[in-house]
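Q: What residues go here?
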């Protein structure tokens, strides 16, 4: 599963800029990587872990602006088309999962 965090936060005042930076740093501390300027993604080993992460992020959303969280399967994520300029690039690979015996 992949969890996307997409946000549009105002930066009109010093406090709003601080909230923006704090939220962005929180996403990074939770294992998210930046895909685009306000689009971050993180691989989750299961839907249950994705729901837990989504709940924690929901609790840390700044008071102003808009945040959207989207959970998609590995298969759906793999169907995404990625372009840098006119050249197409492959999507990110999910990290390998540890197998315990």
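A:
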């Amino acid at each position: 599963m992949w969890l996307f965090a997409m946000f549009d936060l105002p930066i009109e005042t010093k406090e709003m800029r601080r909230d923006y930076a704090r939220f962005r740093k929180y996403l990074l501390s939770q294992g998210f990587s930046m895909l685009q300027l306000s689009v971050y993604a993180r691989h989750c080993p299961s839907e249950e872990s994705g729901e837990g992460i989504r709940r924690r992020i929901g609790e840390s959303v700044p008071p102003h602006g808009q945040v959207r969280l989207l959970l998609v399967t590995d298969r759906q994520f793999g169907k995404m088309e990625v372009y840098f300029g006119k050249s197409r690039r492959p999507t990110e690979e999910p990290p390998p999962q540890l197998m315990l015996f």
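A: Context that may help when evaluating the design: The chain has a mean pLDDT of 90. The chain has one domain: 2-89.
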